[in-house]
Each structure stands twice: as C-alpha cells, then as structure tokens.
C-alpha cells in the first residue's frame, strides 16, 4: 500500500492507522463513484427529481420498547401496558408515551409504522444487519448498508463523503456478527466515513481532518499554524511527478483532508450556543446537530448511532437487571436525551426549509417483550416493533399498520426490513429494480423481489 505524507514522499507501509494523511487503499471510503452514478442515471435508475435528497438514519441501538414509547396499550393488564400513560400529540391520529413530550409537539411531521417485524434471531447484531441492509447475512454474503449503496450509485456531491456514520460505527452486539454498517460485497471502498469522536466534548476534532504527526511536529517546531502546513503540503504535492500518476479520485480524496468546506461542516463551534443547547449538550444531541450540518453541506446519507454498544453504557436495552436499566430507568436516562435531540433536529430541518429534501428514519433492531419481566424490564422481541419516518416526501401525522392488543405481533400491514429499506431507497429516488454487482459478479437487486416502499407514508 502506498502512503503519501507530504513533501511528495511515497513509501510502502504495513501499519495502517486512521491518522494516516492519505492511503490509496481507502480512497473509495470517501464516496468516489461518479461513473457508477452517471451510468445509473443514463439507465433511468435514478429519479432526477429526487436526486438532491439526503437521508439521516437514527439507529436506536438496544431497541426501544414499543409498548412504552410509540405503541401503547393503555387498556391491557398492568404487566403488559407498563407504568406510563399515553398523551395526545400534534397529530390527531397519534398518541405516544408521556416520556416523549417533545416528540408529541412534532408528531404532525413524522409518521409511525407500528407493524414492523423480522424473522432473524433475537440478538442485537442480527437485527442490526437486517434493519440497515434489508437482509440477514447468509451464505457468506454481506449485504451493504443502505448508505453504502447510495455512496456506490451516486457518489459525493461536494468535498465531503457521501456516507457518514456518527459518532462511530457500532461495537459488539453479543452475537459476534458483522453489524451491517459497512460496504459489504461492494467493498471497503464504500464503508462509511466514521467520525470516531464525540462531538459533545469541548475539545472535539475530527481525527481524519487533522494532519499526520510526520508533518505536524516538524512545522509546529517552527511555530507555523496547522493550516499553513496543510496548504504548503498540498501545493508541493501537486507539483510532483507522483501526483501525475494518480487519477482524479485520488486528488478528490486528498483534497478532503485539506478542504475548508469539510472543516467548516464538522466545526460545531460555528453554531450559536443557543442552537447547540437546543439539541442537548450530549453525544446524541450534538450528533443530530452535526448531521444537519453535514446534510446542509452536501452529505447524502448520515447514520446516527444513539449508542455504540449494549455492554458499556445504558441504552434502550432495558432488561431490568444490572448492568442494564429498567423501564423506569429508560424514562429518566435515555428518553430525555433522545426526545430533545430528535425534536430539535426535526424542527431545525423544518425551519430551514430542509425537511422536504431530507428523510429522517428512526429504526431499531427489534422491539421488547409484551410482558414486563420480574426485574422490571422487557427483553428482546423481533416479532413486532415500531419505526418512524419524517421528511423526504413522507406525509407526517400518520399511523401505518397496527399490532395486536398486547403489542406482540402485527395485526395488519406487516412491514419487513426489506420494505423499510425499499422505503428509504424510494424516498431518495432509486428504482427498486436497480441491480448491484454482487459477489462473484452476480447481479444483486438493491431489495429482494416482493419488497416495496410503504406507500401509505407518501
């Protein structure tokens, strides 16, 4: 692998770190696929009308309890309905839990799908795969993340990557399975650009936008600013013979590292304090704000992981016993942070006139058991759960599908992960018959035959 670190120096290396200034083997992670995009356009597989739409996928890692959030059963027995009461919202069709009062205020802008289900094992990473790709991984075939498919077919619009995950990719889920947040059979070139930093920290910086130690130390000793180092380095590089050996994709990726546009898009310090506080000065809230900034700057697909793992932090995974939390703990720890960040994102996108062109989809790996367990929590339940959508052509204030009286299985309009993926692709303007180059060059449809967008949302 070649590594370029300034002054035109190129050498082979075996160690690979994310702080390397540029590595030829990782260029495609920046979303450099204009040829594929143009070809898809020529074939009529891209709806030009929706060409500029973007998507933000909020992945509720750990899996919220449908019965305690968006699909309450107030007339069910106490061990089913849980401790919370439903409240009215800005939509006459939607009642939700009292623990999400800010969601209630923007319920006219999102629509619920209460009849989601999947047939994979009730383990986190199996659900992560299905809900972010539309398929379970079988036969050694790792289906790409939806954002990776968007990256492959459309490429990036600006200096910024087409596909970004915040704040970083998911950690372990307990099943030791791939988590579905990668380029899969499209290759690592289409893995998302992962932030790998907490935007709520006072010293927040994006590691991959910083210069390497080889350059920084030498220049800092001479009391020069980092920006001067970067500018001088790229000027020198572009004058060398090495640059002439590289194609336009290389130059695009190299410029990302020194792009003023990229630096400014990731710079939350440019936001007024009042705006940052509106989202919540926590990791999830600031990721929501950063997602808005990235979409505003041309990023096509942003995935926000509400949490990173179910093992080292309190999440939606409310089993009740330690190290997990209970239903009550969800009310006090998880819900307020989530409620504030999501509602601020929707309001901000709407106020800026961006919501129509930005799909915001909230998904999770499964739901929770209808019956409260002895520890005061609920366990894994893929048989029925709720997902919801806003913007991107979705009509707000609606409810699609319903569950049975205990929230255990869909009562009507069952919706699979493939249908959810098809809904995202449809919003972004893709023909659902689009074919990808699968393993061994075999044609691979972006969604399985028989999977369709949730038409009632549009």
UniProtKB/TrEMBL annotation:
This is DUF1501 domain-containing protein. It comes from Gimesia aquarii. It comes from the Bacteria. InterPro entries: Alkaline_phosphatase_core_sf (IPR017850), DUF1501 (IPR010869). PANTHER family: BLL7424 PROTEIN (PTHR43737), DUF1501 DOMAIN-CONTAINING PROTEIN (PTHR43737:SF1). It holds the Pfam family DUF1501.
């Amino acid at each position: 692998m070649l590594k370029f670190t300034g002054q035109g120096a190129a050498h082979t290396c075996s160690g690979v770190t994310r702080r390397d200034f540029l590595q030829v083997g990782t260029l495609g992670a920046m979303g450099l696929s204009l040829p594929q995009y143009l070809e898809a356009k020529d074939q009529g597989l891209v709806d030009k009308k929706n060409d500029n739409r973007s998507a933000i996928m909020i992945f509720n890692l750990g899996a919220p309890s449908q019965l305690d959030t968006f699909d309450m059963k107030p007339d069910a027995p106490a061990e089913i309905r849980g401790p919370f009461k439903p409240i009215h919202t800005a939509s006459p069709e939607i009642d939700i839990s009292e623990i999400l009062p800010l969601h209630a205020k923007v319920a006219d802008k999102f629509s619920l799908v209460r009849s989601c289900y999947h047939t994979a094992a009730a383990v986190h990473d199996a659900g992560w795969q299905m809900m972010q790709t539309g398929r379970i991984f079988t036969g050694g075939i790792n289906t790409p993340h939806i954002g990776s498919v968007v990256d492959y077919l459309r490429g990036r619009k600006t200096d910024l990557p087409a596909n970004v995950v915040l704040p970083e990719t998911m950690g372990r889920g307990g099943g030791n399975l791939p988590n579905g947040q990668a380029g899969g059979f499209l290759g690592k070139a289409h893995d998302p650009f992962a932030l790998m930093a907490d935007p709520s920290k006072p010293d927040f910086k994006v590691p991959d936008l910083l210069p390497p130690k080889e350059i920084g130390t030498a220049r800092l000793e001479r009391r020069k600013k980092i920006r001067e180092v970067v500018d001088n380095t790229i000027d020198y590089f572009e004058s060398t013979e090495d640059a002439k050996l590289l194609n336009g994709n290389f130059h695009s990726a190299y410029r990302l590292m020194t792009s003023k546009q990229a630096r400014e898009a990731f710079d939350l310090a440019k936001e007024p304090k009042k705006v940052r506080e509106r989202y919540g000065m926590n990791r999830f809230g600031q990721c929501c704000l950063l997602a808005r900034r990235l979409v505003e700057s041309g990023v096509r697909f942003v995935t926000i992981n509400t949490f990173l793992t179910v093992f080292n932090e309190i999440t939606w995974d409310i089993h009740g016993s330690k190290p997990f939390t209970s239903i009550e703990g969800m009310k006090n720890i998880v819900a307020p942070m989530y409620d504030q960040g999501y509602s601020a994102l929707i309001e901000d996108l709407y106020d800026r006139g961006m919501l129509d062109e930005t799909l915001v989809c909230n998904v999770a790996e499964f739901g929770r058991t209808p019956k409260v367990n002895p520890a005061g929590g609920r366990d894994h339940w893929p048989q029925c759960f709720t997902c919801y959508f806003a913007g991107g052509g979705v009509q707000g204030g609606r409810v699609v599908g319903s569950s049975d009286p205990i929230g255990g299985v869909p009562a009507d309009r069952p919706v699979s992960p493939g249908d959810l993926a098809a809904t995202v692709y449809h919003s972004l303007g893709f023909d659902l018959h689009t074919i990808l180059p699968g393993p061994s060059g075999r044609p691979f449809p972006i969604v399985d035959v028989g999977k369709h967008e949730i038409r009632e949302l549009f």
